[in-house]
Design a protein that fits this description.
With 264 residues, the chain is α/β, with parallel strands linked by helices. The chain has one domain (2-261): Rossmann fold. Helix content is 37%, strand content 26%. The strands form 2 sheets. A 7-stranded mixed beta sheet has the order 5-4-3-6-7-9-8, sandwiched between helices. The longest helix has 18 residues, at 223-240. The chain starts with a strand and ends with a strand. Mean pLDDT is 92; it is low at 1-5. It binds S-adenosylmethionine. S-adenosylmethionine is lined by residues 4-5, 9, 25, 44-46, 50, 67-69, 72, 91-93, 107-109, 112-113, 212.
Length: 264
C-alpha cells in the first residue's frame, strides 16, 4: 500500500469489484467509435488492466500511462509493451506531454482531484486539433453510502478527527462539464448512467466503499478508532442496503464526458 494525495491505494482491495468497475470504462471508450489515435495518455491508470485494453484496441498507438501511486504502477508494469505501452509514477495535476496527444483517457480519477475543473482546459490545450478527452467520474455522492459516511464523519464523535476531510461531491453534473468544456471551444458529449449493481457476500457495500471513499477516513484514524467507525458505518449500511435473496442492490450513478477539441 502507499499514500498519495492523502489517500492510500490498495490494488488488491480496489480489484475486488474489478468487473463492475470495468464496465463504465468499456462504455466510455466504446463511444469513441472508429477513432484511431496515435498518441494516447491514460491519466490515473491504476493497475493498468484497463489501459491494456486500449493497447489491444489500438495496436498502432503509443500509450503513456501514469498514476501517482507507486503500488498501482508496480502492478501496472506487468502490462507494459516496449515501445507501445509504458507506465510511470506521476501526478496528473502537473502532467504536460512533450507533444500534442490525440486522446486523453481518465477513468474514475478526477473525483480525487477537487480542483480538476481548472485542470481540464489545460488538458484540452494538450490535445492535437480534433483530439479528444474522455473521462468518467462517479456521481453517487448523494447516495446513502456517501451521505451516511458524511453524517458519521461530521457527528460529535468523529468531527474533531474527520471534519477536515473533503467528503462533499467533488464533481460537476454532466451539464456542468458540458458548459465548462464547450466554453473552451470543444464539442461535448456528456451523459450519466445509473447501474443497478447487485453485490454479493457479507456487507458488500462496505467492502466496495473500502476500496475508494473510505480510504481517507480510515487513514485518519488509528486501528481502534477505525474499528469503531467501521462498526457504526456497517450498521447504517445494512439498513440502507438490505440484503435480498439474490444479493444486495447498490445503485451507482456515473458521469461520462467526451470532449473533442475543435480542429482550428
Ligand atoms: C479509482 S482508481 C482508477 C484507476 C484506473 N483508471 C481504473 O479505472 O481502473 C483512481 C486512481 O487515481 C489515482 N490518482 C488519484 N489522484 C491522482 C493524481 N493527482 N495523480 C495521479 N493519479 C492519481 C490513484 O492513485 C488511483 O490509482
Amino acid at each position: 500500500m502507499s499514500r498519495e494525495n492523502g489517500v492510500r491505494w490498495d490494488p488488491a482491495q480496489y480489484g475486488v469489484f474489478g468487473g463492475a468497475r470495468a464496465r463504465p470504462f468499456a462504455e466510455l471508450v466504446a463511444r469513441l467509435g472508429d477513432a484511431a489515435p496515435a498518441r494516447v495518455a491514460d491519466l490515473g491508470c491504476g493497475t493498468g488492466e484497463l489501459t491494456a485494453t486500449l493497447a489491444a484496441r489500438w495496436p498502432g498507438a503509443r500509450i503513456d500511462a501514469l498514476d501517482s501511486s507507486p503500488d498501482m504502477i508496480r502492478e501496472a508494469r506487468r502490462h507494459e509493451i516496449p515501445g507501445r505501452l509504458s507506465f510511470r509514477v506521476a501526478d496528473v495535476t502537473t502532467w504536460k506531454p512533450d507533444a500534442p496527444v490525440d486522446l486523453i483517457v481518465s477513468n474514475a480519477v478526477l473525483h480525487w482531484v477537487p480542483e480538476h475543473p481548472d485542470l481540464l482546459p489545460r488538458w484540452i490545450d494538450a490535445l492535437a486539433p480534433g483530439g479528444r478527452l474522455a473521462f468518467q467520474v462517479p456521481g453517487n455522492f448523494d447516495a446513502p453510502s456517501h451521505v451516511l459516511l458524511r453524517e458519521l464523519g461530521r457527528s460529535d464523535r468523529w468531527r474533531a478527527k474527520l471534519g477536515h476531510l473533503q467528503l462533499d461531491a467533488p464533481v460537476l453534473d454532466p451539464a456542468g462539464y458540458l458548459d465548462l468544456l464547450a466554453r473552451h471551444g470543444c464539442a461535448v458529449d456528456a451523459w450519466e448512467t445509473t447501474y443497478a449493481q447487485v453485490l454479493h457476500g457479507e456487507d458488500p457495500v462496505l467492502e466496495w466503499v473500502k476500496g475508494t471513499a473510505l480510504r481517507p477516513v480510515l487513514m485518519a484514524l488509528d486501528p481502534d478508532e477505525a474499528g469503531e467507525f467501521l462498526a457504526a458505518y456497517r450498521e447504517r449500511l445494512r439498513q440502507a442496503y438490505p440484503a435480498a435473496p439474490y444479493g444486495t442492490v447498490f445503485p451507482f450513478r456515473r458521469i461520462f464526458v467526451i470532449a473533442t477539441r475543435n480542429t482550428t
